[in-house]
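Chapter review: from sequence to fold.
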Amino acid sequence: MNALARQLLLPSLCADALALGPHWIYEPTKISKLYPDGIRNYDAPRSTYHPAKSAGDFTHYGDQTLALLRSLVLRQGFFKDGWRDDWHQFWKNNPPAYRDGATKSTLGFLERSVDAASESSDLAGAARIAPIIALLAARPLSERIDAARAQTALTHGDRATIDAAEFFTRASDAIVSGSAIPAALEAAAHISYQALDARSFLDQAIAASDLNSNAAGDKFGLACNTQQAFPLTLWFLLSYSEHPLEALIANAMVGGDNAARGLPIGLLMGAAHGLAWLPNEWLDGLNRRVEIEALLTLAGISSEPATSHHTIPNPDGHTLSAVPPPASPVS
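The C-alpha cell string follows.
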C-alpha cells in the first residue's frame, strides 16, 4: 500500500513541476530554443503567468493537488464540504498565486455562499486527482470515482471534464489491477459517460500514432479545454506507454497547457511503472518535498509511524494538524 500510494502520487506532482518552465507557451519552436536538449530538470517559468514561482515549484494546478492531499490526510478521507472549505482556505492563504477563470469564478460563488461551480471545461479540474487515487487506493472503485468527480465538480461544472476525472480513475484502477496502459485506456473508454465521448477521443489518439509530439499537438490542440487536452493526453499515454520519463519530458516540451496534461500522465505512468524511472533530482528538487513527505508520514505512507497529533508547519501561513471529522466520506 505504501509503495503504491507513492508511485501514484509523486510522478503526477513531478510532471506538474517539470511543466512549469514552458507552461502556457504555445510555440514549440520557442520551447525548443529554450531547451535545445529537452527539458531535463525543473526551471523557473518562462512565460508571464507565474511571476512568483521558481524552479521546483508547482503550477497553480499542482498547488491545488497538494491542497487536496493535505485535505485528505488531515481529514482522514475525502469530504466534499471539507474539500470546499480547504480549497477556499488555500486561496485565502495564497493571494499572489495565479488565478485562472475557474478559480476566480468559484471563489466568487463561495464569497456569496452560492453552491455552484464555474462553467470551465479546462482539463485541469480533472487533473488534480492523484491524491484521491493514492490515498484511497484500498477503497472501492466506486468511492474513488465519486471522490474524483466531486473534487472536480467543486471548481469545474463542465460535465465532460467531470467525466474525465472518472475516466482517469478507472484507467488507473485497471493499471493497478494488472493491465498495461493501452488496455487500461480501452477499459476506461468502454464506459458510457454522461458527456465525455471517451471512445471517440481514444480512437483519434490511436489513429494519430504515426505523428510526433509536435504534430500531435498541432492536430489536437494545446489549449486548456478538455476537448483538446484530453485526446492529446491519451496520445502521450499511448505513444510513450513504455517510456514514462520520455512521456513527461515530451509533454512538457510541447507546451500549451502541459501541466494539466502532465498530472494525469504522471499518475498513470506511475501506476504502470512505479518510481524507479523517476530521477532522484526531480524528487529532491520539489520545493514542497518536506511537506509532501510529512503528509505521507501522517497518512501512514512511510516507515515513520503517524500520530493523530502530528503537526506540520508549511509555507501557506498556517499549521497543519490531524483532527478526524465526525462525518462520512464523500457526503
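Two observations follow directly from the output. Residues 303-310, 322-329 have pLDDT under 50 and may be disordered. The chain has 17 helices and two strands.
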